[in-house]
Amino acid sequence: MFFTVGRQGTTYKSNDYGIGYYNGSWKGFTSGDLTGWLAEAPNYTISAGQNIYMHIAIVGDYVRLRVLDGNNFSKVFWDKSYYHYSYFPSNGSGVHFNRQITLCDTDEVTGTGLYFKNASFSDSYLYSPTGYARYSSNNTNPDRRGRFKADWTNYSNVTVHSSSAWYAEKISIEF
Description:
mainly beta, globular, five-stranded antiparallel sheet, three-stranded antiparallel sheet
């Protein structure tokens, strides 16, 4: 589960920031044009089915990702800031945020049995220096919601259980 932060400057650049499960445990990560691939273990163990709170913000020349226990915000799983070389203006002008739930297979093979079930976002909000609002059709792009796919797979691998609300999604993916 991650956020993509992107902006069209002279060239388009973006970076992913989030948490992922690989090699037997959850890890915080970033990957993209500005940082390359970086991953580290969180401060505490994250368990399957656990509620987490994810917050991403542009803070000066950094993108800050915070992952907190969804039931106890004082328990910080992840709090990292990544330098972005002044590419994203701190006022957010021209920057887009995209939240995603995805499953990756580096061998680009379906039918492997790799899966996750019922991954979800709920109560998603957008914050700005002047206020905040729940995700809605007024502050989001409809092309950035629901099913996404890589060129090597197809929509039949993705089940969107609920995407009627802009602020919540529940998705299962099976290869």
